[in-house]
Amino acid sequence: MEKLQDILNSIPYFVQGAALTLFVAFVALLVGLLIGLPLALLRVYGSKLLARAATWYSVVLRGLPSLVVLFIIFYGIPPLLGITLPALLAGCIALGVCSSAYQMELLRGAILSVGPGQMMAARAMGMSHAQAVIHIILPQALRAVIPSWSNEAAVVLKDSSLVYVVGLAELLRRSQQVAARTHQFFIVYLICGVMYFVMTFSVNRGLDRLETVLRLPTPLEEH
Amino acid sequence: MEGIRTFWNMIWPGLGQGLLVTLQVSAVSLALGSLLGLPAALMRVYGPKWMRWIAIVYIEGMRGTPLLVQLFIIFYGLPDVANWVHALGVPLSTARQIFVLERMTAAYLALGLNSGAYQAEYFRGAIQSIHGGQIMAARALGMSRMQSILHIVLPQALRLALPAWSNEVAYMVKYSSVVFIIAVPDLLARAGFIISRHFNPMEMYLTVGAIYLTLVLGFSTLMTRVEKRLEIPGLQMEVERT
Amino acid sequence: MSKHIVTVEDLHKTYGTNQVLKGVSLTVDEREVLVIIGPSGTGKSTLLRCINLLSRPDKGHIWVDGEEITAPHANVNHIRARVGMVFQDFNLFSHLTALQNVTIALTKVKKMSKPQAHELGMFELERVGLVEKADHYPAQLSGGQKQRVAIARALGMEPRVMLFDEPTSALDPELIGEVLEVMKKLAREGMTMLVVTHEMGFAREVSTRMIFMEGGVIAEQGPTKQLFSNPQQQRTREFLGKITELHAEHAGE
Fold this sequence. Notes:
The complex is a heterotrimer of chains A (223), B (242) and C (253). Chain A has 223 residues and is mainly alpha-helical. Chain A has helices spanning 2-9, 11-45, 48-62, 66-81, 87-114, 116-124, 129-144, 146-159, 171-182, 185-214. Helix content of chain A is 82%, strand content 0%. In chain A, helix 4 packs across helix 5 (87-114), helix 5 (87-114) crosses helix 7 (129-144) and helix 5 (87-114) runs antiparallel to helix 8. Chain A is flat and about 75 Å long. The N and C termini of chain A lie far apart (56 Å). The model of chain A has no long low-confidence stretch (mean pLDDT 90). Helices cover 81% and strands 0% of the residues of chain B. With 242 residues, chain B is mostly helical. Residues 238-242 of chain B have low confidence and may be disordered. Chain B starts with a helix and ends in a 12-residue tail after the last helix. Chain B is flat and about 70 Å long. Chain C is an alpha/beta fold and 253 residues long. Chain C has helices spanning 44-51, 76-80, 98-108, 114-127, 143-156, 173-188, 200-206, 224-229, 234-246, and strands at residues 4-15, 18-29, 33-37, 59-64, 67-68, 83-86, 161-165, 193-196, 209-214, 217-223. Classes of the chains: A mainly alpha (223), B mainly alpha (242), C alpha/beta (253). Chain A binds chain B through residues 59-60, 62-69, 71-72, 75-77, 79-80, 102, 105-106, 148, 151, 154-155, 158-162, 164-165, 172, 175-176, 179, 184-187, 189-190, 192-193, 196-197, 200-201, and chain B through 61, 63-70, 72-73, 76-81, 170, 174-175, 177-178, 180-181, 188, 195, 201-202, 205-206, 208-209, 212-213, 216-217, 240-242.
């Protein structure tokens, strides 16, 4: 059973891959947020034209498979611009752009859930629109969005496995290498799956914790 | 005009065949997903403890791991299982017949199992959103548990799950693209062949992207029509995105 | 001597650490209209739900129409078909029209043919005054109309006894009257009824006997007139006083 020994010895190799997976997912989520939040604000508060543009962005990007976006960014654009894009960058950007469309929808929902009354009260006190958004609406919206954002984080983490196709040495690619070497495909991929599961589970749990910590007290509780 | 003629000759019939395969894979996987998802949801809500556990393991297991990993386990991993089963005494040919899957079958199975887990959650949400009082009323009238699930819960749950299910249709079409990785000749795979001959990645991927977009938007519109048709006044639910 | 339609003997029921019924016994005769009153949480709803086995008692026996429903091998669905129940929250089936709400149990439980069920369904809807709403969905009906459909649905099964669990508590004040009218009509037609309610006007007008429950037991029971004019227990007196004050607008519908 030296095959099994080989596999066990490869665990650190897998973990490094997992670290890269987490990195890619983290950056992609961040990119998604940095694009998605302004778009959500445009969609809710922007002029008809801008809101329309944001909607189109969302519709198009949610209608494209992540793989297609990845290929466009990794194989399609660089030749046109005469540059080479490192796989890591391409992966993060592609996943980030895809996620931004979904995050835009999530955030839009969360902003709308805060209710027009809050904005009215803020403006009535003399706050500018921007101040109201930053100090009143967003703090509440960002709290409200955590559960669905937690879902999106899990999705991005799983989708990060797609960068396999551009050769990035993340968890899945490394699993494939070890599997090919030891010819133990089932076991290795199963371990790979378990590692992904542990990662998504932990991320979800972590975000649940965050939600509890940030939750505003209700009349029935004492803070 | 010349440009369009050459373009068309380049993509047809290759992309057309790829489109067909993509639709095939999406449709079969969706159907398989429903066949697995609805029972799984029912097991999770109404089943005894052991049934609920099986359902939870299936649902959370599939939802917590990437589709690609599941695909690899089924396509590359199952042949290993064939060998193990053979080592236990089963003739090799039988073992291989059961566990070594053709690409398409592996694709259907992986996507179907995956979709089933997500669909199970949509159905569960719909089932649980039905006010428990209606079931009490059904029992009070003398209906058995089975009857109240069949005639009161399911008709409502299926309608309530429709918006989420339309989402699933879109997801399926998009995620079906991963099967090109195990060399199933779908839209993305065909695009790859054309690129290897004509060296025009941007053009092809944009074309393929446009096709996927059309499919997704087309199905969304279709599903909205279906929802309108089946609408019952007062029967609706907050839709949660997965 | 009329036969007892419902006999309850020494009923006990505990939910978690809370003992809701602590030994309740009562009988209901044919054509009786029995009203049960008492503070919230004293087990009134639980009592009703035990009579059609939606709740299983921990201890005690119940007989409905001569059959012991608490026996180990009793056919529960069979029993429930003969006991009608009307809930505080109506619990109409949202995906079915008013008529379909009434007919579904007729076809699925009583195995009637569709035309037969249709006829009986329309008859019951007429009885509660809602024939024009037969093809409407619950969401399109007012609260009072929903409850009347719920009554029609229960009546369709031709029950031996009708249980009403605070039928008007979830209704807006203006809508309570129409439901009480239907219930009074049923009482006049001779239906055996067990009603948990706060509507004292209704109680005074149609009920033959009243039961005051408190703390999981029957504190006092007796003919309605007597309970109102000369309650034996202090608590009964207090409770009746508060309740009549609160619902003064509905007295004398």
